[in-house]
Amino acid sequence: MINVSSRRCQATGCLRHPNFGFQGDRRATFCCRHKATGMIDVVSRRCQHPGCVRRPLYAMAGQRAMFCRTHKDPGHTDVVSRRCNFEGGCDRHPSFGWKQGDGKARRCAHHRLEGMESVKVNNRRGSAAAAAAAAAAAAATASTPAQAW
Ligand SMILES: [Zn+2]
Ligand SMILES: [Zn+2]
Ligand SMILES: [Zn+2]
């Protein structure tokens, strides 16, 4: 574990709290004054586009969110939000999913699919097992025309 509270900007003599690091860095090394070119704010939850203060939701898959919807690159995906994945677009929070699958909420109450149940419960434990179950469920439901994921 990193002792976050004791970290400082690595510029000589600077006592500021570091917010900036290189993309992909898990930890910040420099403050906003001393950041190097190309460093991004890896601490604050802000879009990395200069001047943009929106909440970041998009990044390359597997990275932490860095850009808002407006400033995302074409290759970026939404790595934060959990939204109803209704094909027509829906901004509601999902709370329905397949309990016998991965248990993840995928659809709002309006767009829940046949057989979906409320899965709001926190389901962090055993995600590997859940993923396996999801794969099995996906295979099992592959014949259902509505969804293919
Ligand atoms: Zn500094
Ligand atoms: Zn932005
Ligand atoms: Zn919806």
UniProtKB/TrEMBL annotation:
It comes from the Eukaryota. It holds the Pfam family EsV_1_7_cys. This is EsV-1-7.
